[in-house]
Amino acid sequence: MEVIDENGRVFGVVNVIDLLVLLLVLAVVAAGVALVLGSGASEAESETATITVRADSVQPYVADAVPPVGDLDGGSVTSIENKTVEPATIVTTNSSGDVLVREHPRLKTVTLTVTVDVSQTDGTRVYDEQSLKVGKGVSLDLHTVDLRGNVTAVEHET
């Protein structure tokens, strides 16, 4: 019995071109399954971290809407450990060119220490789909208000 007959069929059953198309389709399906299921080598571990976030030049109504210290129900921010609200500072010059640091008459600086749910993949902590590092901007969903600020400290918990 010949492998490919005079009509171009493999073992007299399937056309060679049809066989190649079938193999290509199977390879694409296998690659898709591997992509969706992954290898499992870099699974994310769930844990918590305490971060300090400083939000500068915040409108007073936003600062007032930040919940008090305590636990939060649901969401990726599980509790507020510490909260300070101070007048924001501005840098200006006087008529003689001296640099002056003054309090802003309205805007506030809000500093929060919060416990957040993070995932860790390959040694990198991730919060809100971004790596969690000092200096990185984050947005905290505090149920009554979204607060955007920069991370000033990160402490690993469990």
Which terms summarize this structure?
alpha+beta; 2 helices; single chain; about 160 residues
Describe this structure in words.
With 158 residues, the protein is α+β, with helices and mostly antiparallel strands. Helix content is 18%, strand content 52%. It is built from 2 helices and 10 strands, in the order ββαβαβββββββ. The protein has helices at residues 16-37, 60-65, and strands at residues 9-10, 14-15, 45-58, 70-71, 77-93, 99-121, 124-127, 130-131, 137-141, 146-156. Strands 3, 4, 5, 6, 7, 8, 9 and 10 form an 8-stranded antiparallel beta sheet that branches. The protein has a two-stranded antiparallel sheet with strand order 1-2. Strand 1 and strand 2 form a beta hairpin. The longest helix has 22 residues, at 16-37.
Structural class, from helix and strand content?
A: alpha+beta
Let me know the average pLDDT. 86
Shape: elongated
Number of helices: 2
What is this structure, in a nutshell?
The chain is α+β, with helices and mostly antiparallel strands. Helix content is 18%, strand content 52%.
SSE map:
Elements: E1 9-10, E2 14-15, H1 16-37, E3 45-58, H2 60-65, E4 70-71, E5 77-93, E6 99-121, E7 124-127, E8 130-131, E9 137-141, E10 146-156
Antiparallel strand pairs: 1-2, 3-6, 3-10, 4-5, 5-6, 6-7, 7-8, 9-10
